[in-house]
Amino acid sequence: MKKSTLALAVALGAIAQQAGAAGFIEDSKATLGLRNFYINTDNRDGTGPNKNEEWGQGFDLRFISGYTQGTVGFGVDAIGLLGVRLDSGGGTNGATKRTSATAPGSYGGTIFPSESNGKAVNDFSSLGLTAKAKISQTELKLGTLQPKLPVIVTNDGRLLPQTFQGGQITTNDIKDLTLVGGQIEKAKGRNSSSNESLSLAGANSRGANWRDSNKFIYGGGDYKITKDLTAQYYYGKLEDFYKQHFLGLTHNWSIGPGVLKSDLRYFNSSDDGANGHESAYYTNGNYNGFNNGKGKVDNNLYSGLFLYTVAGHTFGGGYQVSNGSSDFPWLNQGDGSSAYLTTDMQIQKFARAGERTWQARYAYDFAKVGVPGLTAGVVYLKGTDIDTVGANPRRLEITGQSEWERDITVAYVIPEGPLKNLGVAWKNAMWRTDLANTRSQDENRLIVSYSLPLF
């Protein structure tokens, strides 16, 4: 039995003995989240299927307990996930047929896992349990986690959310300082029922060449210098793949009738262990002359985003630079993941080797004109100076490639009445690129969601 599994069993046993204690029940709450999700992706140019399309209904049941009384309080959280297929587009679910019985990973489509022939399953589900303990303002969690930190971000961009397995400790015992540390061993993809080992783009190809790790450690903190100024430092290491340092600074500044928010970020990423010398562990980037066109992690990423909000309007712009031989690295099993980037958009992330990206944003909150709950926004990004390698045997360098994406979002959440919390959102994205052997895309998502408090 793994250490984390044993620790979870012991913690759950202690909780079971005290489940009737005051606080555990009284402070508990449960919610049922419903999400009806439709996605249609139009793959333009090139060869292969032109359309990926799926539609499903998701159920997200969560129980969050209070803590038992005493110096050390114990509790338990649970998350039950169920996805039901409504339509898989007549075989256009985007799944890859399994070529080997021993190949790792879930060969899923856009939303659902798939069978060996590529057909979407009728439904999929999972249950996650988290044991927790608390002393003063310090909390320990073991089991299912959904961290949202600069070096590890849970993805929630499909029917059901991604989850991780591991342990995390968080403390707020020092005024204005939040410290976090943890270790992750497994990840469950957003279109999967099973936990898989961790990997990195370039090494996560399905089949015999798959390379993985069962150890991602992270730690860092947020310090509120003033009520409007927060500084961050975080560190993450995926064993045998990469090490990453993050520095961040956010500031809110009242200017005239509005508020200017600035968000500055810096990542320094380098190789770790096997990634430094074994080609099977290499990642994507610009590795001129390498037979496989891949190499060790080597990336520095700088970004700044500035947003000014006034009278319901939000105007903004930003710039990002990705330096080094490799693309920006993040936890990526190849089944959909998120990175803590101001350029992580609906389709692309704009963090390839050498890439320079500028962006412009506008959003409006219609509550200012008497329609609370209605919002709309548009984002445009243009990335240039991308460095890659060609498909020829010597993998010669190709520079100066570009890409752009335009995303539109319109959303409405009923603010009050019997249908309070019922939401509808439409997300439209258009991505174009001149990258070799890459297909441009158009994509639409329609999401109907509802959150029902149970107790």
Can you put this structure into words, describing what you see?
Keywords: Signal, Transport. This is Porin-like protein NicP. It holds the Pfam family OprD. InterPro entries: OM_porin_bac (IPR005318), Porin_dom_sf (IPR023614). It comes from Pseudomonas fluorescens. It is a single chain. The protein has 455 residues and is mainly beta. The chain has a single domain (21-453), classed as Porin (Beta Barrel), CATH 2.40.160.10. It is built from 1 helix and 23 strands. The chain has one helix at 3-17; strands at 29-43, 51-64, 73-87, 123-135, 138-145, 148-149, 152-153, 163-171, 177-188, 195-196, 216-226, 229-238, 242-255, 258-271, 283-284, 294-295, 298-310, 313-323, 356-365, 374-389, 397-413, 423-433, 441-453. The strands form 3 sheets. The protein has an 18-stranded antiparallel β-barrel. Strand 17 (298-310) and strand 18 form a beta hairpin.
